[in-house]
Amino acid sequence: MGEVDIALIGAGIMSATLGAIFRELEPSWTQVIFERCDAPAEESSSPWNNAGTGHSALCELNYTPENHGKVDTAKAVNINEKFQLSRQFWSHQVEKGVLGDPSEFINPVPHVSFANGEDQVRYLRRRYEALRTLPLFPDMQFTDDRATFDEMLPLMGEGRAAGDRVAISWSNNGTDVNFGAQTRQFVDAAIQQGTEVRYGHEVTNISAHGDKWKVTAKNRHTGESQTIIANFVFVGAGGQALPLLQKSGISEIKGFAGFPVSGQWLRCTNEELVEKHAAKVYGKASVGAPPMSVPHLDTRVIDGKKGLMFGPYAGWTPKFLKHGSNLDLFKSMRVGNIPSYLGVGVQEMGLTKYLVTELLKDMDARIDSLREYMPTARKEDWELIIAGQRVQVIKPAGVPRFGSLEFGTTLINNSAGTIAGLLGASPGASIAPSAMIELLERCFGGYMIEWSGKIKEMFPSYGVKLSNEPKLFEELWDHSQKVLKLER
């Protein structure tokens, strides 16, 4: 039975990011990664398992809700601030030689918001007016001119009725991120620096061992069980984080539940169409639909090749991982979280209706949805692919609500700061560095003064709101543009 300082469960972008941070802060600390698959980034971090949007709220309309005619920009600014930390950290890692060629994991792709119909066009104009003067949203543009729309987005303009009222706002500062490639670069660097990675090992139990943790893992190929003792455990296992945290017995996870939602995408197989589109275009979700249903037509850059996909279409399965078990949901049920499940079941009837509608769609119905964006879409030019599994967080039941479904990420840690895990989904990977900073603050508060210099090297704007420091934002932005090779 070996001992390590840091045990990372899951070889996805979250564990890869935290491991890289710890190697900067405490290079002498030993690390081990357990991964149930035989390679890194095979689940949600895999590039075709997510949209690859560098989520910075440039185009995502669900981050700018409208209340009584006023657009609320607070969430958009908050997410953008977090994404700036990601850019800073990635730039630092490139400069240190931890990450290699940036074009393998990040590329410039315009982010576009799409409005169709008078009400949406009015909203989009108000959103543009609310964002364009904010320091973190420079060079935002807007048009409701049909000729400009057709020129910028030919696939969306071709075949569209002349009377369609459309508008777009956009930023050329958007990015497409291949989190799978980035994860692989991080893990390769980790191995070179002494981190042990155990592929094909599924963690089956986490239990307290004094003030440390005993982690038990099963070799999925031989059936052999292994145990290690770790000073700190991070559960970055995607949907499987919930049941593993439950097994740890920490009180902080009690009452939490998970709602699994599978995703599907249409992927374009016609290279001519792929080349005619160069943007990530986000629209508004249908009335009554949850934020996860926001449709988007996305340019992807994966392994040096351009791609195009549309979605997501929701599916449902009780699995907590794409390659998980149909018993995952049922195994996660506890006496303490049953009220949370029941409460969400009663309160989220819109979500239930949406999922039923999505499950009933055949390929023709999916193409009909695509035609709202691309009127000339043909079924023979697209194929259906299965995306990564998302497990939305259901927070514990309480007064006055009986559990609440959260469409974001939630960090859970015990009071001693010796174990932590990340639950939830979007914006997830895009703000992994910010989430890991929060983990450090919660679990390693006693080290933060000692680490402050190194943290500022990795995250120059740490502790500063760039929205209040436009000059600093410009300096850091220009630097990351050059280092990440995002200058056009």
UniProtKB/TrEMBL annotation:
Keywords: FAD, Flavoprotein, Oxidoreductase, Tricarboxylic acid cycle. It is an enzyme of class 1 (oxidoreductase). InterPro entries: FAD/NAD-bd_sf, MQO. It catalyses: (S)-malate + a quinone = a quinol + oxaloacetate. The keyword Metal-binding does not apply. Its EC number is 1.1.5.4. It holds the Pfam family Mqo. Pathway: Carbohydrate metabolism; tricarboxylic acid cycle; oxaloacetate from (S)-malate (quinone route): step 1/1. Its cofactor is FAD. GO terms for molecular function: (S)-2-hydroxyglutarate dehydrogenase activity; L-malate dehydrogenase (quinone) activity. One of its GO terms (biological process) is tricarboxylic acid cycle. NCBIfam families: mal_quin_oxido (TIGR01320), PRK05257.2-1 (NF003606), PRK05257.3-2 (NF003611), PRK13339.1 (NF009875). Belongs to the MQO family. PANTHER family: L-2-HYDROXYGLUTARATE DEHYDROGENASE, MITOCHONDRIAL. This is Probable malate:quinone oxidoreductase. The gene is mqo.
